# Entry
Amino acid sequence: MKDLVYNIRIPLTQSKDVISRKLTLTVNGTNIFAKNFPGNTVDFGEFLFSHNDDVLVSIQDMDDVGNLSLTFEKRFIARDTVSPETPSNMNIYFVEERFENGEYPQAS
# Structure
């Protein structure tokens, strides 16, 4: 089975006193990742999931005195939605001329 690579990003917070952002990943009901990132993090990197994984991504910000934001959550099902490459370089050749009665024209 192949892995599906997803990148997790979030806009920069508008709060100037945010010092950390906690990212938590839950896959198929199991918490598989939890890590605090710097407060200015917008790109959390790439993560691998399997086809049909039920993924819950949670992000929570913390300010310089320990206040926590509400948790932002997004749930999705990991799917392979990338189509195969379009076939190319097709060659079509004329082979012969056939008549309805099966006969071929006679050379004169």
User: Anything to note?
Assistant: The CA atoms of residues 6 and 47 lie 5 Å apart. The mean pLDDT is 91. The chain has no helices and six strands.
